What we know:
Helix 5 crosses helix 7. The protein has seven helices and no strands. The longest helix has 22 residues.
Amino acid sequence: MSAATMALLGYGYIKTQDSVADAEYLTYIQKYGKSYATKDEYLLRLTIFQQNDKVIKEWNANENKTHTLAHNKFSDYTTHEMSRIKNKKAHKEFDERANYNITFDGDIPESVNWVEKNVVSPVDELFLCAAGWAFAAAGAIESRHAINTGSDLIRLSPQQCVDCAREMGENWDNCDGGYTDDCMFYSQIDPLNTYADFPYIHD
Length: 203
């Protein structure tokens, strides 16, 4: 029987002194289908969850913040577990191929909500593939196209970058991380397919 199941049945041995935290964590366990083999692992995960929960609540209580935070399935992961799914590639020097000159004609608005304008794709689940670099590049390209043309947002394929956008001669699993500009430069040579035609398989 899983620790989550035992907790829901009221087994006192996994109760802590903070009943509110216990209740919040049990809700989290149910939502993400978590289970733990031992009391010690449960308490470890609960502690990590509480630490992250404190950060989230403090952030969201600050009215000066322009966005809010929320829990996800990684809220009780250890630092070591998170390091395995983050970009493992070393910092890359400035790429001379990139043109970072930005011009803007007209008045610059104080703020723009691109989400409300429907030119930003939703947050995606990466699973255990560190493909954030590919999603960032595909998302930037699809948003730029929607803004420039005034058309509906067309989701592009980050999986194509994961599979194909490698530096020349590089022997690297792109699920271990990558560079956003490599995906962008690759897309100039081989335009990205739509997400529907080349879906993300996190592998």
